[in-house]
Queue: 2 jobs
Job 1
Amino acid sequence: MAEDNNQTTGGAAGAASGEQQNQPQFSLQRIYVKDISFESPNSPAVFQQPFKPKVGLDLNTTSSQVGEGLYEVVIKVTAQVSHSETGNTSFLAEIEQAGLFRIANIEGEQLEHTLGAFCPNLLFPYARECIDNLVNRGGFPPLMLAPVNFEAMYAQKKQREAQASETTQ
């Protein structure tokens, strides 16, 4: 009897199967560190003075198609911390946190939005944890990066692109 429950016949079940094939599909395949770097060029002198940090943070995202329906999204986070009074670099931490995403039946603007905002939102907590860990292992207090609004970053990028296309016309 169990065999009867697993059989698919034509009609409504076949139509539902066809509809599922056209539905947007999204899945996270893997999260990984693509590149990582930590430098403390003024060690050990930096530990012999009060820690008064001045943080410079750079954040960038990229994406590329690496196979049929398979996309790599990379968040690059660079944190340069220097002494607020002397300007000497305390440390430079850099990470490229990446993820592989399987995406099907999502195209055009919706695909761009998924790769430019949604995927980075999923990856950022991993990048943030990795930076904190890296900085801590370098002998410094954790950096504790604030959450990032990738939706707003994506909207700003689209606005700059629109302005650039208007000025070139």
Job 2
Amino acid sequence: MSKITKTDEQWRQELDAETYRVTREHGTERAFSHPGFPKSEGLFTCACCGAALFTQESKYESGCGWPSFYAPKPDAPVAESRDTTFGMVRTEVHCEECGAHLGHVFPDGPAPTGMRYCINGVSIRFTPSENATEN
């Protein structure tokens, strides 16, 4: 159960239309439509509530068109649920703090986990570490 609860109207006032559609209505942004994120050290946080979800160290280029990670940050509020929309069975990932839809996870990622957390770019924000340097 989400810890942060807001009405749809509150979310609509806080989020841009695309972020609302993806995170609150379980949408998906078009592949390759999100601009790249910096490659400096930092955290990827939930676009809705700011919870720390993924680290730069777990991000990799999968070629799928969405930001990909091989694992959430340790102790991140990333939860999974079964998704049977569009005639498929997939594993949805969402923010446990606010219920935001983040994307899906697939068992075709790199070591060390073998998982690919395929995350909508509008569902996350990049927050650089204080000591980060641009690559």
